[in-house]
Amino acid sequence: MRKNWMIRQGWIAAVMMLVPIIFSLLDADHNSLTQHMSEYEATDGLLPTISRYSTVVTGLSVSLFAIGCLFGTGRFRFSWTFVAALVFGLAMLSNGVFTTGTPMHGLHGLAVFLVLVPTFYAAEFGTGSTFPAFVGYSLLTSLIGLLYIWALIFGFDPEAWRGLTQRLASLVTFLWFAVAALSWRPAYR
């Protein structure tokens, strides 16, 4: 299918998310162990600006992935993955457009939809993957994301490690998009 490219390009989200992770590690004024990536992106300079743009591209990639789940699967059908991934993609896009501290950063916390994307995708398209244990991998990814969100909400994310835990959770989440994209095989022919 020609429209499969929207799902297959999902690896771009993973690559683009590496930019703020790596750039923030290189900045001597930013503490990657204690500060979130958004705090780095709120500073001035060339690398934080590039980092913000990469976050926008990440959001666009996730949004295209979502649209691919709706239209690029071989036949049109409603998809819960589309809803969750589109909301998450738009929240990621807003993370790059609006700096931390503003209500529009993350669209008022809608980035929490990230935990639903792998589970919905596994339920709807898991058999379309060439990766044999993909469903289990997707559920594990969602569980890790859920545990991270709970740690944030209930104050279990240690202040001294909150930057590190965010980066690790981001790596897990966006690696999933790369695996899903690169293992995509349409279930409907």
Keywords:
0% strand; globular; mainly alpha; single chain; 189 residues; 8 helices
Could you explain how this protein is built, in words?
By secondary structure, the chain is mainly alpha-helical. It is built from eight helices and no strands. The protein has helices spanning 5-8, 11-26, 37-41, 46-71, 80-97, 116-125, 134-153, 162-182. The N and C termini lie close together (9 Å). The model has no long low-confidence stretch (mean pLDDT 89).
Write a brief structural summary.
The protein is mainly α. It has 8 helices and no strands.
Beta-strand share of residues: under 5%
The major beta sheet can be summarized as: none
Please state the average pLDDT score: 89
**Class by alpha and beta content:** mainly alpha
Walk me through the topology.
Elements: H1 5-8, H2 11-26, H3 37-41, H4 46-71, H5 80-97, H6 116-125, H7 134-153, H8 162-182
